[in-house]
């Protein structure tokens, strides 16, 4: 007795081939959920600075491919700083700006931040607001001083940064 494939068998074979291709394209990946604010920092709250880069290096070394974060919108104390009750769906949280990276860019000095450094510990939003209230305006002022100066009628900032 000879087996003759039925049309249904042919469809099953096609599906198995399709599944193999799908499986290769849609591999499973591992990762972690870690709020940015939970990273260690001497400024009372985790930020997108050196510790974030270190964490990404750790994920890479551990062969993890995904870092899932909580929403990063601006929060306030009235909602217990819940990332799910952000004040804006479009704005970022200024507390996540790294003072260390601003220092590396030359927008802040060691002296600007020395008095605000603490031992990493629990997140302290009240202290983090005080610290960012000091370094953000200082860094912004120094950043503006380092931008290229544009001559009056010289085409504005877009002209300065455009390619020749």
What does this structure look like?
The chain is mainly alpha-helical and 164 residues long. It has one domain. It is 43% helix and 4% strand. The chain has a two-stranded parallel sheet with strand order 1-2. The longest helix has 22 residues, at 125-146. It is elongated, with a radius of gyration of 25 Å. The termini are far apart.
Oligomer: single chain
**Mean pLDDT level:** 81
Can you tell me the number of structural domains? 1
Q: Sheet with the most strands?
A: 2 strands, parallel
List the helices and strands and how they pair.
Blueprint: H1 7-25, E1 31-33, H2 50-61, E2 66-68, H3 99-104, H4 110-114, H5 125-146, H6 156-161
Parallel strand pairs: 1-2
What is this structure, in a nutshell?
Helices cover 43% and strands 4% of the residues. The protein is mostly helical and 164 residues long. The chain has one domain.
Question: Which characteristics define this entry?
Answer:
mainly alpha, elongated, GH, carbohydrate metabolism, 4-alpha-glucanotransferase, transferase
């Amino acid at each position: 007795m000879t087996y003759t494939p039925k049309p249904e068998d042919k469809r099953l074979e096609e599906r198995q081939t399709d599944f193999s291709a799908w499986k290769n394209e849609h591999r499973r990946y591992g990762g972690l959920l870690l709020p940015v604010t939970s990273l260690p920092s001497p400024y009372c709250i985790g930020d997108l600075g050196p510790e974030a880069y270190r964490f990404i290096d750790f994920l890479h070394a551990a062969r993890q491919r995904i870092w899932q974060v909580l929403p990063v919108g601006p929060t306030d104390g009235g909602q217990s700083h819940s990332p799910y009750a952000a004040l804006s769906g479009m704005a970022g949280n200024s507390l996540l700006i790294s003072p260390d990276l601003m220092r590396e860019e030359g927008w802040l000095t060691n002296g600007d931040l020395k008095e605000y450094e603490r031992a990493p510990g629990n997140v302290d939003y009240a202290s983090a607001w005080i610290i960012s209230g000091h370094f953000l305006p200082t860094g912004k002022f120094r950043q503006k001083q380092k931008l290229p100066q544009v001559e009056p009628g010289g085409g504005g900032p877009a002209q300065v940064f455009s390619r020749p």
